[in-house]
Amino acid sequence: MIRPLLEHFGINKDNLGYFVLDNASNNDITLVKLGKTIRFELMQKRLRYIGHILNLIAKLYIFRQDISTFKEDYKKALLRERRELWR
Protein backbone atom coordinates (compact mmCIF):
# COMPACT_ATOMS: atom_id res chain seq x y z
CA MET A 1 0.00 0.00 0.00
CA ILE A 2 2.80 2.43 0.82
CA ARG A 3 5.18 1.02 -1.77
CA PRO A 4 3.61 2.93 -4.74
CA LEU A 5 3.96 6.18 -2.80
CA LEU A 6 7.61 5.49 -2.02
CA GLU A 7 8.30 4.58 -5.64
CA HIS A 8 6.50 7.73 -6.84
CA PHE A 9 8.86 9.90 -4.81
CA GLY A 10 11.90 7.76 -5.60
CA ILE A 11 12.44 6.68 -2.00
CA ASN A 12 14.48 3.52 -1.60
CA LYS A 13 16.98 2.03 0.85
CA ASP A 14 19.84 3.99 -0.74
CA ASN A 15 18.38 7.46 -0.20
CA LEU A 16 16.22 6.84 2.87
CA GLY A 17 17.08 9.01 5.86
CA TYR A 18 16.34 8.30 9.49
CA PHE A 19 13.11 7.88 11.42
CA VAL A 20 12.74 9.88 14.62
CA LEU A 21 9.80 8.48 16.54
CA ASP A 22 8.60 8.16 20.09
CA ASN A 23 8.55 4.83 21.91
CA ALA A 24 5.04 3.73 20.92
CA SER A 25 4.98 0.08 19.90
CA ASN A 26 2.94 0.81 16.78
CA ASN A 27 5.88 2.86 15.46
CA ASP A 28 8.15 -0.17 15.81
CA ILE A 29 5.64 -2.40 14.02
CA THR A 30 5.27 0.10 11.19
CA LEU A 31 9.02 0.37 10.71
CA VAL A 32 9.48 -3.40 10.73
CA LYS A 33 6.93 -3.74 7.94
CA LEU A 34 8.38 -0.80 6.02
CA GLY A 35 11.86 -2.26 6.42
CA LYS A 36 10.69 -5.50 4.87
CA THR A 37 9.01 -3.61 2.02
CA ILE A 38 12.05 -1.61 0.91
CA ARG A 39 14.70 -3.76 2.60
CA PHE A 40 16.49 -1.48 5.04
CA GLU A 41 18.02 -2.34 8.39
CA LEU A 42 15.71 -1.03 11.10
CA MET A 43 18.37 -0.62 13.80
CA GLN A 44 20.41 1.63 11.50
CA LYS A 45 17.48 3.90 10.61
CA ARG A 46 15.54 4.17 13.89
CA LEU A 47 16.26 7.04 16.28
CA ARG A 48 14.46 7.56 19.55
CA TYR A 49 12.88 10.97 20.09
CA ILE A 50 14.80 12.30 23.08
CA GLY A 51 12.15 14.95 23.78
CA HIS A 52 9.61 12.22 24.46
CA ILE A 53 12.00 10.39 26.76
CA LEU A 54 12.82 13.57 28.68
CA ASN A 55 9.11 14.33 29.00
CA LEU A 56 8.50 10.91 30.56
CA ILE A 57 11.38 11.42 33.00
CA ALA A 58 10.17 14.92 33.93
CA LYS A 59 6.62 13.68 34.59
CA LEU A 60 7.93 10.92 36.82
CA TYR A 61 10.13 13.36 38.74
CA ILE A 62 7.46 16.06 39.10
CA PHE A 63 4.45 13.92 39.91
CA ARG A 64 6.21 11.05 41.71
CA GLN A 65 3.18 8.90 41.02
CA ASP A 66 1.08 7.55 38.20
CA ILE A 67 0.44 10.48 35.83
CA SER A 68 -3.10 9.33 34.98
CA THR A 69 -3.99 9.27 38.68
CA PHE A 70 -2.54 12.74 39.10
CA LYS A 71 -4.55 14.08 36.14
CA GLU A 72 -7.78 12.61 37.53
CA ASP A 73 -7.13 14.05 41.00
CA TYR A 74 -6.18 17.42 39.50
CA LYS A 75 -9.40 17.65 37.49
CA LYS A 76 -11.51 16.87 40.56
CA ALA A 77 -9.66 19.22 42.91
CA LEU A 78 -10.56 22.81 43.76
CA LEU A 79 -8.00 25.53 43.04
CA ARG A 80 -6.66 25.51 46.62
CA GLU A 81 -6.37 21.71 46.54
CA ARG A 82 -4.60 21.78 43.19
CA ARG A 83 -1.73 23.73 44.71
CA GLU A 84 -1.33 20.99 47.32
CA LEU A 85 -1.13 18.29 44.64
CA TRP A 86 2.05 19.92 43.30
CA ARG A 87 3.85 19.59 46.64
What's the short version?
With 87 residues, the protein is mostly helical. It is built from six helices and two strands; from the N terminus they run αβααβααα.
Description:
With 87 residues, the protein is mainly α. It has 2 domains: 3-48, no CATH class; 50-85, no CATH class. It contains 6 helices and 2 strands. The protein has helices at residues 3-8, 25-38, 42-45, 50-63, 67-76, 79-85, and strands at 19-21, 46-48. It has a two-stranded parallel sheet. The mean pLDDT is 78.
Strand line-up across the major sheet: 1-2
Average pLDDT value? 78
Through-space gap between termini: 51 Å
Largest sheet: 2 strands, parallel
Count the E strands. Answer: 2
Output the helix-strand order: HEHHEHHH
Helix segment tally: 6
- Report the helical percentage: 55-70%
Overall tally of structural domains: 2
Using the CA coordinates, give the radius of gyration: 20 Å
> So what's the overall shape?
elongated
